[in-house]
Amino acid sequence: MKIYMINNTFRYETENIVRVFFPNEKLEMVNIEKNEQESEKPYILTQITDSDSGKTVMASVHFEDYTNAITDTVDFCENESQYISEQERKTAVCIYRLLTEYTGIIPPWGILTGVRPIKLFRRLLQKHGLDYVRMYFKDKLLVSEEKISLCQETERNESYIIRQSSDNSYSLYVSIPFCPTRCSYCSFVSQSTEKSAKLIDPYVDLLCQELIHTAKILAGYPLKLETIYIGGGTPTTLNAEQLQKLLTVINQYFPVNSCKEFTVEAGRPDTINEDKLKVMLTNHVDRISINPQTMNDDILRTIGRHHTAQQTLDAFALARTVGFTHINMDLIAGLPNESFESFRRTLDTIVRLNPESITVHTLAMKRSSHLTAQGMHIMKENADTACQMHDYCRTLLYEHAYEPYYLYRQSRMVGNLENIGYARKGFSGLYNVYIMDETHSIIACGGGAVTKLKNNHEDTLQRIFNYKYPYEYINGFAEILKRKDEIRTFFDNFL
Fold it and tell me: Is this model's pTM higher than 0.70 or not?
């Protein structure tokens, strides 16, 4: 589908709002100077023209069985940025109203397509107060009352965590970009161990060197380590000896004893055994994530996860026996072929296990995932089912004393929904909040890791990128160490 734009550069917002309604369509953005686009349908047209008081915004949609147009006006404003922003917002609203009428779909997040709605909610709340932010989300962004209330509650819980963070704090992220297999919905850079097992040993060796190099840089500054997160990939694809080596380096060179949270994402139940759990527990890891995604064995096979629901139950019981007192579990709403009844059984089973936190993701159809390559499409019925799944989560988890504590969104999500973390009181995942809020610097090591250095004075981030794939990381390791020296330059300027 082509989207023509006249006298505007609102490419990003326009594409994103159209994709909410047509997530499977290939969209082509075309700038034209006047209304002389091709007549082949379907297409969408947006146009900005001068008016007596400012600007006129117009959007039209052209399908074989439906054609319509909407206009709106934007009064002149001396603040150029605000003036253009309002033109962009009203363009999105016009498209939204047209496509809602055509498709019958009413996206619960309205025209809000950003990754961090809670951060926007908090910024407006601090500046204008609760009544204003609720009005703005409802009337200007067309967000549903249910999602506004969800934002309000999540923001309250997030803000409590953020207030506990020190001004000179940072978190450490360690990347293990290996998995037993690649899930069909995954677009991350992790490598399956079937293809890259020989890279794991040299990767771990170099990762330890990068951690030591980074720790020595940080030691020269008055910084406080608040959380550590080892993610991936699946960190527990490492064997017990490799985990011990990695964790020994972290404990030796970083102030682990004083940090508030140390998480290892032990995502695949089939990678968890007693030796690995004991290695983690004896090296100050106090939070793990065991991620079933679903407790339906047929769906697990469909999405390429080579474990069973019973293995999830066994891994959870083993982690409790070893001594873990904070276990998170991840689920995915909207998996291919999964019914609401199947999802409900999954959530009921997980709640009976009584984990301290539960994260509910929504399936996102990433361009590089196997599901997308195989031609899976998101249909309206998929969206309706995913909404029903989230509604059930909210009801059941509230009944069992779980509260939402962080939330983020991705493009191409089924139903244009969200990923949301629920936790019992005192068991929120601190790192999750810090990374989504961009509270402080995240120092990241390993393949695909991105260090984000937070300038608190200007509320800006400086990024340092590592090479993505394990073989690139190994071959370009000297350059990675060189880039880490940018941390020293940054803190020399701001501390």
Answer: yes
